[in-house]
Amino acid sequence: MCAARISYLGLTKEDLKTILRASGVPEEHIKEVEEPQVTWKPLEDLINRTIKPFVEGIFKRFVGDMRKISQNIIEGKLVDAAKVALPYAISAIAATVAIELLQTKFAGFGLDLRKTVDKIDRLISPELIFSALIGVMIGRGVELPGVYLFNSLFTPEIPSEQDIFQMYCEGLITKDEAYRLMRFHGKSDKFTDKLFTIWDFTPSWFAIERFYRYYPPPEDILEEFFRKNRIINPKHKKYYKEYLNWLLIRDEFDRIGGAIRDLYVNGYISEEDFMEVLNYVIKTKVEREAIKQYADIVREKNLLKYYVNKNIYLYRHGVITELELLDRLKDLGLDSDFAEAIVEYEAARKGKEWYPSGETPS
After folding, report:
1. Which residue range is the domain that position 187 belongs to?
2. How close are the terminal C-alpha atoms of the chain, in Å?
3. Does residue 165 lie within any of the structural domains?
């Protein structure tokens, strides 16, 4: 292929060798002129010795100088920033032009430079150096500082809608100023008025509930809360008011409920008295029933304890035997294992070793 192209241009193989010698190509490489992939090895060496270090040097200097450009922009020194940046624009253009000229020069010999150009690209990566990476660096070093600088010069930003409303409520801007700024956000005065209405500051339900535990808010504040707080359905206002009133004394009612339950479970008051107080201090039926069920269980336990202790005392004073004590405990409803354990324990207190079977375990 190489010989055919040379013949087409009127150049002989010797002519090509003469050109390569004049270009400083070593003699051992000239002998391999028949092999294009080897013929271009000197060109690759040339690129590695010259173009590649040149590009790497640009890149290293670019990093340092980009910091200077960025700082100058931030400080408003645009002329100084331009002076530092201008040589790089020229260098980038020069490198691109050099590559094009290199291709044009060798194309005159009728050689297929596609493989060679690919090798150049892989060696110096001009697209990467002068496009993606530099683009990111310029964006961070020039564009972003430029945005900061011009924002400080022209201050195009205005507060957010919520910030405008906050400043209006704090009295930092007038109503007319607030409405004018809202128009920059595309809100008409009609809609701004509606937005300010629903954004109006009212206590949250949590704040009202917590506050109510210490001191009920005035009726007008409470009414405003119910009117503007969207989590409360207006038709449920009566229920919530009643809840808040009960909240004031709920802790005390809980203490009353606990005290009356202790009286009931220990037998100091009747079931009727207990339920009468429970109905007064506990509002929900489900809660009253749960408290009553728990109290009945504790009351039964306390009552059973007296009967168990009574029979134990009779045994301790020799009125009944071990077997009689065991039978009475089972009649009271005690589990067999517990009943037998109690009898064995009480027998041991008397210095006796007693077992239900009458035989000592081996």
Report:
1. 161-198
2. 110
3. yes
The number of CA neighbours under 13 Å toward the Cβ of 330 is 12
Model pTM? Answer: 0.40
Structural domain tally of the chain?
A: 2
What is the chain's length? 362
Q: What's the rounded Cα separation, in Å, for the pair 336 and 358?
A: 16
Q: 122, 154, 186: which is the final residue of a domain?
A: 154
- Does residue 149 share a domain with residue 48? yes
**Burial of 328 (C-beta count, 10 Å sphere; 0-12/13-18/19+):** buried
Q: Under DSSP, is residue 181 helix (H, G, I), strand (E, B) or coil?
A: helix
User: Per residue in 145-192, pLDDT tens?
Assistant: 877 777 777 777 788 888 898 888 888 999 999 999 999 899 999 989
Question: 77 by DSSP, 3-state: which?
Answer: coil
**Rounded CA separation 271/340 (Å):** 34
171 inside domain: yes
Q: Count CB neighbours of 266 within 10 A.
A: 12
